[in-house]
Amino acid sequence: MLTYMIYLTYIRVRIYRQAKDVIKTIKKRLGSKSKDSQLYAVMLLEMLMNNIGEPIHTQVIDNGILPILVKIVKKKSSSDLPVREKIFLLLDATQTSVGGASGKFPQYYNAYYDLVVGICIYI
Predict the structure, then answer these.
(1) Ordered domains of the chain (ranges, CATH)
(2) How far apart (Å, rounded) are the C-alpha atoms in residues 53 and 47?
(3) Which of 47, 61, 92, 122 is 20 to 30 A from 20 (CA-CA)?
């Protein structure tokens, strides 16, 4: 049993380290001018959030990915509409799944709320 617990701890540490590297790469791709690169980065981020969970959420918050996502959505360019839509839906689903404003990661709710208020102002 002890060996199994040590193994699980090792896997968790390894996932955390790998998550850190992947999130740094995603942050770099989100800053790209290519809309395809941005869209693929958002799709990868969504997949990681859905399948890995907490280590990814922690890294997204620690590395400042949320403000970048909000900034992309707030751009008024119509050429990147699929990217903006995907980010908005990702933040909506994520803030709901982590418990909203009183959940474990209220930063997602704050980012989503910032977008909703921003969209209401434009309308």
Answers:
(1) 2-122 (1.25.40.90)
(2) 10
(3) 92
Handedness of CA 100, 54, 118, 88 (dihedral sign): negative
Rounded Cα gap, residues 99 and 118, in angstroms: 22
Q: Is 123 exposed, middle or buried (0-12, 13-18, 19+ CB in 10 A)?
A: exposed
- Residue listed under structure tokens 């474990």: 104
Task: Walk along the chain (123 residues) and give the pLDDT tens digit of each residue.
Answer: 556 656 656 666 677 777 788 888 889 999 988 898 899 999 989 988 888 778 888 889 999 999 999 999 888 776 688 899 999 999 999 999 888 888 889 999 999 998 888 765 554
Q: Shortest CA distance to 86 belongs to which of 43, 22, 56, 36?
A: 43
The answer for residues whose C-beta is within 8 angstroms of residue 61's C-beta and 6 or more apart is: 105, 107
Q: Are 28 and 21 in contact (CB under 8 A)?
A: no
CB 83 within 8 A of CB 35: yes
